[in-house]
Each structure stands twice: as C-alpha cells, then as structure tokens.
Amino acid sequence: MYTQEEKAIKFVIKAFEGQKRIKEDISLSAHSITVGFMLKNIGCDQITVTSGFLHDIIEDTNYDYTYIKENFGEEVANNVIQISEDMNIPNWKERKEKFILNLYKQNKNILLIELADKLHNLISDYDL
Q: Per residue in 3-50, pLDDT tens?
C-alpha cells in the first residue's frame, strides 16, 4: 500500500509523461516532485506536501479538480485549485493579476506551496 505522498508521486510521473520543462531537458514531473520534497523537508504536513506534488496538475494536464478530489481528497483538491491559475482567462496578464490577487486571501500552506514552486523555478531556470 502506498502512502498518499507516494501515490501522488506515481500519479505526477504518469500525468506529465512526455512533457518537458521549457528551459531544461527534464520531465515536468521532476519540478512537481521537487516542490513536494521541498515542502516535506521544511516539515509541512501530508496534505500540504501532497498538494505540492500536485500543484501543476490542473494547469498543465487534462486532470481536473474532480479527479484530484476523488483520488487525493477534498482538502488536497482545494489546495491545488487555489494555487492554479484560471486557464479560462486567455489573456496572460489578466490571468496572472487575478492569480496574484487571489494569493492575498490564502493561508500559509498555500503560500508555502507557491513559494516552493517559485524558488525551484528560480534555482532551475537561473542555475542557482
């Protein structure tokens, strides 16, 4: 039997199969897995860590809130939706502005996921 975190890692690898990061020749799943482990390493709870592993699923795959809720629970699904941009907004600038304004309303765990995501982007994109 897998833990919820192990199940999330296996799912992320499957969900991102064939997708690569823009500036690196590695699977997109490596980014999501790194974000989850960053959260685990600073002592976040299982819900937050699992949400970190899954943070890009709604934005970058065909899996949706309902799938995450059914497979990882409502709390994880709610976290993932809170850190996902509204891809129904076609204008990039408007989508980013709405996302940033939404962050002001979030709890510390959502903010930690977002910070881990941005930190890993900086580290990997700029070879820090």
A: 999 999 999 999 999 887 776 677 889 999 999 999 999 999 999 999
- Residue by residue, DSSP assigns 6-25 as HHHHHHHHHHTTT-B-TTSS
> What DSSP character marks residue 27?
B
Instruction: Please state, in angstroms and rounded to a whole number, the distance separating the CA atoms of residues 124 and 25.
Output: 11
Provide the token pair at 121: 């982007």
Residues 32 and 17 sit within 8 Å (Cβ to Cβ): no
**Distance between CA atoms of residues 30 and 128, nearest Å:** 17
Q: What single-letter DSSP state applies at residue 61?
A: S
Side-chain-side CA neighbours of residue 11 (13 Å): 24
CA separation for the pair 128, 125 (Å, rounded) = 8
User: Residue 37 and residue 11: Cα distance in Å, rounded?
Assistant: 15
